[in-house]
Amino acid sequence: MNREQRLRIQAELQSLTTELQHLRQREAEHLKSVSGAPQFTTNKIRELRQRIIQLEDDLQAGEKSPAQELYRAGFAAELLGDTKKAIRLYKQAARKKYPDADAALRSMRYDARSDKTGWLIGLGILAAIAIAAFIIWRLSAANTETTTANKITPTLRPTLSVVLAATRTPAPLRPSNTPRPTATNTPAPILPTNTPPTSPTETTRTEPPEPTPTETPVLQPAPKIIGPPNNLVWQGGTIVFEFEAVELRDDELYCLDTLRGFDSTGTENWSYPQTKSKTPSIPVDANVFSVAKTQGIQCVTWQAYIGQSTCHTRTSELTPRRIIGLPDPCDPNSLP
């Protein structure tokens, strides 16, 4: 593996590790609620872990540290559904200071508690059904005993003698002579006139409705930038991108747009993917800028906005473009 390939893999590995940390933080916030982490977040975390393990294999060529071995064994046990074994291996990996071991251990302990809670709830439902069936059986048996007792016990009813007095029934009245109805002349019904049928050629044509134009969504103003200052010259260390706090909706996030790198000729040949955060503070690790500097990058440009659920759906305007110099100030006019 040549130097450029190693640097590119290191940059991707650092990017995936940072994204995994953000997802683990979101997972921890979800685990505090009753619902647990969404399936989308769980699947994304699993994909990132598998890709990180693959990149570590490419860099180390079979030479793995004890922490990596324990973490991978725990991950394999987790995929197989062996929660107890995964928790034990993640504990050992955490003692060896593997970065994601503590978060993986927290997630597995939550799953174990959820499984135990579900088992107890199921047992409680079965017990309630059994108690209800016993109560119904006892009530049915009691009703049967009462009915049988009522049938065996004789009931004495007093006999009543009713004496009917002879009464004279009046003779029926003769019908009176009522006059017969006389026939009246009723007018004959008017027959409907035959109307000629309309020919099929005389059907009226209806014009199709005009399509309504789709309205473009109105974007909200871009978030206001607190730092870093424009035309910053990087001297080393992590750079924290800060914004003024606004009232975001539950599904909105602060998004740092793709960092774009330019060399001394003004050619764009480096980039760092989008990064998001629920808080108005997005740190980017120093290693990202170190890799860009070693690849001959002179300037890095960046913008920010507010996204919905992910940074792929933008709900605000973009901030004005800002520049970070590596390692000297950059001329904005020299960049496309």
A few lines on this structure:
The protein has 336 residues and is of the alpha+beta class. The protein has 6 helices and 12 strands. Helices cover 42% and strands 15% of the residues.
Please characterize this protein's 3D structure.
This protein has 336 residues and is an alpha+beta fold. It is 42% helix and 15% strand. The chain has helices at residues 3-31, 39-60, 66-80, 83-95, 101-152, 286-294; strands at 225-227, 232-233, 239-243, 252-256, 259-262, 268-272, 275-277, 281-284, 299-302, 304-308, 310-314, 322-325. The strands form three sheets. It has a five-stranded mixed beta sheet, with no helix packed on it. It has a four-stranded antiparallel beta sheet with strand order 7-4-10-11, with no helix packed on it. Strand 5 (259-262) and strand 6 (268-272) form a beta hairpin. The longest helix has 52 residues, at 101-152. The chain is extended, with a radius of gyration of 42 Å. The protein starts with a helix and ends in an 11-residue tail after the last strand. 16% of the residues are buried. Mean pLDDT is 80; it is low at 158-169, 173-178 and 199-203.
Break the fold down into its secondary structure elements and pairings.
Elements lengths: L2 H29 L7 H22 L5 H15 L2 H13 L5 H52 L72 E3 L4 E2 L5 E5 L8 E5 L2 E4 L5 E5 L2 E3 L3 E4 L1 H9 L4 E4 L1 E5 L1 E5 L7 E4 L11
Parallel strand pairs: 2-12
Antiparallel strand pairs: 1-3, 3-8, 4-7, 4-10, 5-6, 5-9, 9-12, 10-11
Helix pairs in contact: 1-2, 1-5, 3-4, 4-5
